[in-house]
Design brief:
Elements (H helix, E strand, L loop, with lengths): L1 H23 L15 H14 L3 E8 L14 E5 L2 E3 L1 E7 L4 E8 L8 H15 L5 E7 L3 E8 L2 H9 L11 E4 L3 E4 L9 H13 L5 E8 L10 H10 L3 E6 L3 H8 L9 H12 L3 E3 L4 H15 L2 E6 L10 E8 L5 E3 L3 E3 L6
Parallel strand pairs: 5-6, 5-10, 10-11, 11-12
Antiparallel strand pairs: 1-13, 1-15, 2-3, 2-14, 4-13, 6-7, 8-9, 14-16
Helix pairs in contact: 3-4, 3-9, 5-6, 6-8
Length: about 350
């Protein structure tokens, strides 16, 4: 009896062993197994390192003829890029009129703009309504003794228009801090005393634009006067260059305000034009002096719109592949009778944070 009970158990165990063996035995079609160590993690690390160290420089620029007309039909063979006096080989080149656009409108709401703010609001709203499409995004910032994000990223021109209409002149004293763009109070030394223009450009570039991709532009509506910023003009320019952001300045200076304030007309007490031209030139944009003339402002907005829709995008891998954070000077030229290239003057060789 005991023997008859053992036999089924043995048969069961044998069957189980055969089943296990059948599962472990490779099929004729299976790939041969390897005893080599697993290198998946090593390969992942190598891929990541390669990604970080590939430094592709992308440049957006516009080209005009000697009559100041925009040139829309150039090719890669028509243009040359020189970095720190060394010619570079252009890898990709295209005319970009339809890429998504990230736009920042920056509204000067200091006391000097009191008489021209309504004109800025009306013309600026019309510009955003024309240029902004569903795949584009825009935000609105005002700056005076404070920096305020009036409207965060949106594809709705109506939202920008609503926020712009609500902008108000602010000449009040500061509270010892400057509200940052989306990041709360930013401490400054002393009490803000005027127009925090450079701080506003720095924050918009660093906090809003730097994480965005594609075509990016800041449009400043200001008289160019800065008073009380923690950052200097070069800090603001550097932030915009690191964010690959073009700066356009509509220089809106109310001559009546300066005449009544200083009693000498525009030449005394007004110094904003040269600083704004430098900021625009260094980042590949333009400064357009519209004074307090509504027609000139409309024309200036139209010029900006045309430029943003008639841009070229060129990219190259620099011969100097060190990502050491240094500044590299750029010079772009295109073949043709009297062609002028509008592009940023350089970039910072910083490693990718991705």
């Amino acid at each position: 009896m005991r023997f008859r009970k053992i036999i089924p158990v043995l048969l069961l165990l044998s069957s189980a062993a055969l089943t296990v063996f059948a599962q472990e035995a490779p099929s004729p079609d299976a790939s041969p197994e390897s005893n080599a160590p697993d290198t998946t993690q090593v390969e992942d690390r190598a891929t990541t390192t390669l990604k970080v160290n590939v430094n592709l420089v992308s440049l957006y620029f516009t080209v005009r003829d000697k009559h100041n007309g925009l040139i829309p039909n150039l090719t890669k063979d028509d243009c040359n890029i020189i970095e720190d006096k060394t010619p570079q080989k252009i890898k990709n080149f295209s005319a970009e009129s339809d890429l998504p656009l990230t736009l920042g409108i920056m509204l000067d709401t200091s006391g000097s703009q009191q008489n021209v703010l309504p004109m800025e609001q009306q013309t600026g709203s019309a510009f955003v309504k024309r240029i902004l499409r569903s795949k584009d995004e825009a935000f609105l910032v005002s700056f005076d003794v404070q920096i305020s994000l009036l409207q965060d990223f949106t594809s709705s021109p109506r939202q920008i228009e609503k926020a712009m209409d609500e902008a108000q002149i602010n000449v009040g004293g500061g509270s010892g801090g400057v509200p940052g763009i989306g990041q709360g109070p930013v401490p400054v030394s002393g009490t803000p005393k005027g127009t925090l223009l450079y701080d506003a450009v720095y924050q918009a570039s660093n906090d809003k634009m730097r994480s965005e991709t594609g075509r990016k532009a800041l449009v400043l509506l200001t008289d160019g006067e800065d008073q009380g910023s923690s950052y200097k003009i070069q800090d603001a320019i550097e932030a915009a260059q690191k964010a690959n952001t073009i700066i356009y300045v509509l220089l809106i200076a109310d001559r009546g305000f300066y005449s009544s304030r200083y009693g000498y007309g525009m030449n005394i007490g007004y110094t904003g034009a040269s600083a704004m031209k430098k900021m625009a030139d260094e980042t590949g944009g333009r400064m357009i002096d519209v004074g307090n003339n509504g027609k000139k402002m409309e024309a200036a907005f139209q010029q900006i719109e045309d430029e943003l829709r008639t841009q070229y995008l060129a990219s190259y891998t620099p011969t100097n592949n060190k990502l050491d954070g240094s500044y590299r000077k750029l010079d772009i030229s295109c073949k043709g009778d009297g062609l002028k290239v509008q592009a940023r003057k350089g970039y910072y060789a910083i490693p990718s944070t991705e």
